Amino acid sequence: MAETTPLTTAIQFAISTGKIQSASDIDLSKSTSGIDAVILRNQEGITVASISKRVLKERAENAAVAKLKSEQTDQ
Description:
With 75 residues, the protein is an alpha+beta fold. The chain is built from two helices and three strands; from the N terminus they run αβββα. The two termini are 21 Å apart.
């Protein structure tokens, strides 16, 4: 599985939840990844989304479990 950065994962999450329309809405140079959250900011430096890393981790774990179950039912 390909490694993704916390910012990339947060952008994907923000798109899927409707916080942003596309990755181009985010300025990576103004966005930050802290200890417990990822802050996504636009070109003006305005915070567009603040996403807990715990939420991102749980989402990744749920996706992994769903993929495993899917593979088991295919066998």
